[in-house]
Amino acid sequence: MPEEGGITEFEGLRVVAVAGGVGGAKMAAGLEGVSGGEGLSVVVNTADDFELWGLHISPDVDTVMYTLAGLANPETGWGIRSETFAALEMISAYGEKPWFRLGDRDFATHILRTERLRSGESLTGVTASLGAALGVRSRVLPMTDAPVATVIETPEGKLNFQDYFVGRGQRDEVIGVEFLGMGEARPTREVLKAVREAEAIVLCPSNPVVSVGPVLELAGMREAISGLRAPKVAVSPIVGGRALKGPAGKMLASLGHEASAAGVARMYAGLVDGFVVDHADAGGRREIESLGLEVLVTDAVMKDEGDRVRLGREVLEFAVGLSGRAG
Ligand code: FO1
Fold this sequence. Notes:
Helix content is 38%, strand content 17%. By secondary structure, the chain is α/β, with parallel strands linked by helices.
């Protein structure tokens, strides 16, 4: 959706946003709001993908796609607004546990995606056609067309990501994280082209371990991004020592990182030129600057659509302002 009031100086700017689920989707919507979407490519984590009841579910891809289509459920950030759950109720009636809340309209997405994947289309191709049908103007690019699956190591054993995240409500301590299939997976041609042609790269405020992490772990991705002359910035998903959403804070700490904006900055140091933090984390500014990063302190919490577009504009202004410094 274009920003209210129309054209901005960022119209058509070629931006690559690296995103996971809800936080990444909101940031992508803000970037689309100020750039118009024509030049925006959102590279989305697919390591959360899994199969349920025979269907291929791509939660982060769908969260980004529904958000950019203006269809996302405003309460959860994932799923579709004003959903009904008749299919899930019927699944329950058959004695299955409805642990993953798939709505009726959302089911349609998974049914078509699965059918098209089975007929030989790539996830990239399916996502492009579903997004176009929903009127999405930006390119939503799955990070890879190959299967990659996040496995969470806990004291109870290894869990598939959605078992850990939804099934068990993120209650387990995270001892380690593995990405199955990562060795064979490659970023798609579309992803590499978007990165190569980007005029700015934005790492969205998504979990740096399980959302942005898999994208950066793909063979050649870090090198493709760090070798770019274009400015690269990251937005902190941690505000005031806590994750904006999900288990990032707890997960970072248990994996030996500092659960703070500065801790995330340290994970991205050497890759990005600039780091965006909330006013609550202004105290960490010097520490982040000492990593060689420029810092933008702003209101980094996106409570509504106005916040998304404002933050989108500030992030792009910040990135473009770093152009002289990058490369
Ligand atoms: N997250 C939940 O916490 N509970 C759910 O029941 C749930 C269902 C769901 C259905 C479709 C979809 O696209 C996403 C859904 N999510 C749900 C979100 C999702 O599991 C996570 O946000 C991501 O995988 C983490 O980025």
